[in-house]
Amino acid sequence: MFDQLTHLLGYEFVQNAIAAGVVIAVVSGIVSRFVVARNMSFAVHALAELGFTGSAGAILVGVSPVIGLLAGTTITALFIGALGVRVRERDAVVGVVMAFGLGLGVLFLTLYPRYATEAFAILFGTITGVSHDDVLLLVVIGVITLVALGIVYRPLMFATVDPDVAEARGVPVGALAIVFLLIMAAAVAEAVQVVGVLLILTLLITPGATAERLTARPGRATVYSVAIALFCTVGGILAALVTNAPVSFYVTSLSFAAYLIARFVVGPLTLGAEGRRIAAEMPSP
Amino acid sequence: MADGTSVVRLRDATLDFRGHRVWSDLSLDFGAPSFVAILGPNGSGKTSLLRVILGLAPLSAGTIEVLGEPPRRGNPAIGYVPQHQSFDPDLPLRGRDLVQFGVDGYRWGFGRSDAATRKRVAEAIESVEASAYADAPIGRLSGGEQQRLRIAQALVGDPQLLLCDEPLASLDLRHQQEITELIGRWQRQTGRTVLFVTHDVNPVLNLVDRVLFVVNGRWAAGTPDEVLTSERMTDLYGSHVDVLRVHGRVLVVSESTGSGFEIGEPHHIPSVDHDPGRPPASVS
User: Fold this and answer.
1) CATH of A2-198 among 3.30.70.20, 1.10.10.60, 2.102.10.10, 1.10.3470.10
2) DSSP-derived pairing of the beta strands B78-81 and B161-165
């Protein structure tokens, strides 16, 4: 199996997939920390589904599906940002926008007769089938997203965990919410390439949720989240190459296993070691 | 700030919110050192005044100067302690991290991890005697422990002006005492200015040297002995009110209901129709 793997790693399409996978995993790992802390799972789901509408539209008019995906997620992010300012109305707005956008997606599907393969690829992931140009595009989008995250990381974390004091200290909380929606739009467009629209949460929720179970330190949690996303993505791509089962199956299985192990095996040990009084005085989570 | 200089200076300040006059013609100077209690019923615009000072909301009319300049967002010379809010117990955030937001939370980038920052944070935590639990997840600490760390977060930037917005709400009596002692000690040691929004003046009565009482758009300011009198409160509320001092506590009693209550529950007082034409019942 090891020989087979080294042999496969010689192929360009495999190298492309892994290169894109690494960038996508780093973006997903950081973004998922904020998605979990900001309770934005539903928004991630909506961005992904409307990314599907975007890429369906792109295929219909003969544009790269990656561009269509990014356009779909970005327009959705702006809609959510413009309409759902308060937390209370955000979920409702997400649902309203998502329902309409998916309706468009259905229309595009029926308009394009040879759609079955592409639709399947977008819904469940295509990373080993991505063209060289699209890999380049994914890497560029990924790097831009990482730079944006690097700039806003600290104030975004402040605004996420402690919004009232962050606002009082001059952090532009409202503007950062919009910026984060746009970062999420890019991250979703990236992660869809690996696991597809329907399985997006496995890269944009699970790594952050798993990391929270391992440490009480915010910086460490982000590092763990990135490491878990990398492990699941690269591991999933390699496992799929060797066995011919789909990449998304392996990524979702690996990330689910990571969550269970973190929650029930490793987490209680590491958290107990970090916060001495937690285990002794507090009920276990 | 030298004595006599104004830390917060308001002149004919008026605030409207959604077409509704919150308060008007507020002309006041808060100096240093000073511990000011801002009192009044819910919705009387106490928190709004803090937002104006923080540069988060503009005045509708009049002027305000904070530390000699117009208010601006993110002024590092202002510390802010909010009402206690609970954190998710699984949130990966320690008290130490919360305090460090007071140093670098508003700076772009990844934040600071140098030894000097860590030392500053550790000293702020030590100054509120929270070192024992500063490394536990913040969501698993008690309300009083979290508020101590909030104070460290506000003081780590060495502010000239400390704004506290109901920092005692939902704390038990013992923790209320501890928190007020911490803030009072800091204010005495540094000789700076504290503006303390509270619905109940009693926990801070022995620290307060000035009181601002806001009711239905009207206000009264002065020392506690000047403001917390039956005459001034009756004038302010527009209906007969008795102010009693019992065992060192202040009780405000309304004639019409006969119910005794602390300043904390002024909603028992019959509401007064707002009359913007009426001159403010106070001295500035």
Assistant:
1) 1.10.3470.10
2) parallel
